[in-house]
Amino acid sequence: MKISLLFLIPALVNAWSPTNSYAPGRIECPSDKRLTRVAEGLSSEEHAWLEGRNPVTQANLIKFLQNANMTDFDAQSFVENAKKNITIGLAFSGGGYRAMLCGAGQLAALDSRTTNADASGLGGLLQASTYLVGLSGGNWLVGTIAMNNFTSVEKIVDDGKIWDLERSIINPAGWNVVKLYKYYNGISDDLNAKKDAGFDLSLTDTWARMLSHQFFSELNDTGAALTWSTLQESDPFTNHEMPFPIVVADGRTPNSYIISGNSTVFETNPFELGSWDPSVYQFTKVKYLGTNTTDGEHNGTCVGGFDNAGYVMGTSSTLFNQFVLQINTTSIVGALKDLITHFLNDVSKAENDIAIYKPNPFHKTDEGTISSIAQNDTLYLVDGGEDLQNVPIYPLIQPERKVDVIFAYDNSGDTDQYWPNGASLVATYERQFLTQGNGTYFPHVPDVNTFRNLNLTAKPAFFGCDAKNLSSLFNSPPTNVSTNVTSSVYDIPLVVYTANRPFSFWSNTSTFDMDYTDAQKKGMIRNGYEVSSRLNKTLDSEWAACVGCAIIRREQERQSIEQSEQCKRCFARYCWNGELDSSDAGVNFTTDGTTNGPENDGNRTVSAGLSITIQAGNTSVFKAIGYALLCILVLGFSI
Ligand SMILES: *[C@@H]1O[C@H](CO)[C@@H](O)[C@H](O)[C@H]1NC(C)=O
Ligand SMILES: *[C@@H]1O[C@H](CO)[C@@H](O)[C@H](O)[C@H]1NC(C)=O
Ligand SMILES: *[C@@H]1O[C@H](CO)[C@@H](O)[C@H](O)[C@H]1NC(C)=O
Ligand SMILES: *[C@@H]1O[C@H](CO)[C@@H](O)[C@H](O)[C@H]1NC(C)=O
Ligand SMILES: *[C@@H]1O[C@H](CO)[C@@H](O)[C@H](O)[C@H]1NC(C)=O
Ligand SMILES: *[C@@H]1O[C@H](CO)[C@@H](O)[C@H](O)[C@H]1NC(C)=O
Ligand SMILES: *[C@@H]1O[C@H](CO)[C@@H](O)[C@H](O)[C@H]1NC(C)=O
Ligand SMILES: *[C@@H]1O[C@H](CO)[C@@H](O)[C@H](O)[C@H]1NC(C)=O
Ligand SMILES: *[C@@H]1O[C@H](CO)[C@@H](O)[C@H](O)[C@H]1NC(C)=O
Ligand SMILES: *[C@@H]1O[C@H](CO)[C@@H](O)[C@H](O)[C@H]1NC(C)=O
Ligand SMILES: *[C@@H]1O[C@H](CO)[C@@H](O)[C@H](O)[C@H]1NC(C)=O
Ligand SMILES: CC(=O)N[C@H]1CO[C@H](CO)[C@@H](O)[C@@H]1O
After folding, report:
1. Could you tell me the pLDDT band of residue 176, with boundaries at 50, 70 and 90?
2. Which atom belonging to ligand 5 lies closest to the Cα atom of 252?
3. Gene3D superfamilies from the entry (predicted)?
4. d(CA 639, CA 457)
């Protein structure tokens, strides 16, 4: 694990890609030959980082709880006398730009840097959180914030430079042909540089460079040389100001196209890429991706710069690689067409939705139970939502992370009208019973009809409110699993689930909508803020206190502390009580976000203090493409 000082110094000087371009290049190897490790615990780096972050989250948690107006509760003495550091994880789902924008608003309400969030939202919850996880569209959100010096959503919106979505990523220059030519020419040069350095290209490379124009527009060469591992040296990360960012992708087993609960889930964090699943059960150092290894060991020749930040974020969102193939549908002039055709020819389109990690960092290792993954010279990663777990809860239920409460923000497009219906939580619940579950535990959740019928998507819902009721999960573990890491039901996190809902804006845009006017973008973000703040707390003046009750619940249970009357009231209001109603009924929205009548039936005026008339049912050509894609990829697959 030790890295010799001699090698660290040049690495710090040259924190971005060693070639200062999209191409990976040679870097000094660490003195330890081994780049992989078995996934039996946290990495030493994450462990060390937590030593610094824990005091920050606990101090910020005290502030949050004090500001939440909880009755009969002394936040300071409670947190200071807790048996463990209270650990909060935030998870933002996939669902294209819809998920990115809804998630941005939801996140803004948790950020004490957002104007008024302390009073009208849940300001400070972000600062009190240990982990911040994103998947696909949600990973665009998490990656943008993390890689841009932990900027805030409010600053992004005010500055108006990042997330310019007025024009689609395929044609960002409109009729300005010279500008458009430069855009594609630049991307073509980037891809050529990587190819000339000896690396295979996939459509994810093209997609990665396009995404970077929207997310890293302020950085030199729109982040062509920006690597994910530079997070390790980023000020807000090293001074523990930001949570630990993680993005999620799925592994595709060689010669198989089926993605299911049996697939391998991968995470990429600032230090490592890998999986806790038995099929792989290893991590590799993300900085040295691109290095040839045998059984996890380098031979003295190492590569850096493969972990391009846009590529890592493109990997979690490969479903959208398909957009790239729409280039030729734009009204692009001849010369440009040739250029594009040329670079598309260099890229593997055989499987459009994969990201190629070649060389495979786990090549010829023997830890994992699916040997075809380790035998292949390439590791194939795909969109994290393809296994139906569209809310990236996976990194947060790993027992080693000891998370007390998970805030799950679901902006999936499960229904025909692109609303979430809880399907992602059902998939996560079921996976714990498969071999791949490997000692993870997740509270009981109902079927998707019950989610709708009992208003569990209409307003926030708490799952696993009473840890004692979770003991039955211990009775049905897969046979190969020892339950030693999670020895107590109190170690199974409570889940606060919040689903996308329309308040001031119809936020159910198609997953495949590629452009948003400034007004639409702001409408989506504002609505997201209203979703996570319960319409600026107008729907529940006690909302912050109720969130506080959820955060402290497991620690109270550990210490057998009785809940306050207020917390009991909150739990009666928000906890799923185990009731089921699986009938197949229609759904609609009232102004308080609850359901009543047929779904999304046209124009409507939203009251609730805001008088805006909003056009329902966002249509676009990509909606049609979206439906086709959904059918082609996986039946019932929803992102
Ligand atoms: C909280 O975390 C800090 C730093 O990791 C550690 O020193 C401390 O013992 C932890 N507190 C508890 C109660 O476990
Ligand atoms: C706490 O109560 C005060 C006074 O009623 C109110 O101004 C403030 O917004 C409340 N804070 C929260 C977080 O609800
Ligand atoms: C990053 O943000 C901090 C404030 O959190 C600021 O002091 C610093 O200058 C910023 N660094 C860069 C490179 O923008
Ligand atoms: C910016 O990127 C260009 C093109 O990759 C490179 O030539 C130049 O050295 C970079 N500048 C800095 C300050 O890194
Ligand atoms: C590696 O995986 C690819 C894609 O599934 C497959 O075509 C190839 O045969 C595999 N190679 C080996 C050596 O298994
Ligand atoms: C998952 O694997 C188990 C055996 O390990 C098998 O019985 C089951 O059919 C698989 N499920 C899917 C959806 O592939
Ligand atoms: C890795 O090994 C392969 C096969 O031996 C070789 O083609 C490739 O150039 C090597 N890559 C690097 C970066 O050394
Ligand atoms: C290490 O592997 C690289 C290919 O990745 C090869 O070019 C180089 O010669 C090897 N070096 C040693 C010392 O074996
Ligand atoms: C665009 O290219 C794809 C393949 O790259 C092809 O299938 C499709 O027909 C082309 N469409 C147009 C309008 O040229
Ligand atoms: C769901 O919300 C609607 C509208 O407020 C209400 O009529 C209905 O009773 C609620 N259902 C349940 C099970 O709470
Ligand atoms: C798990 O705990 C049981 C009982 O304490 C013990 O017998 C067993 O060896 C442990 N298993 C592992 C893998 O540590
Ligand atoms: C808790 C648990 O069962 N962990 C297992 C996860 O998978 C690895 C690899 O198969 C096992 O070694 C662990 O015991």
Report:
1. confident
2. 5
3. Cytosolic phospholipase A2 catalytic domain
4. 16
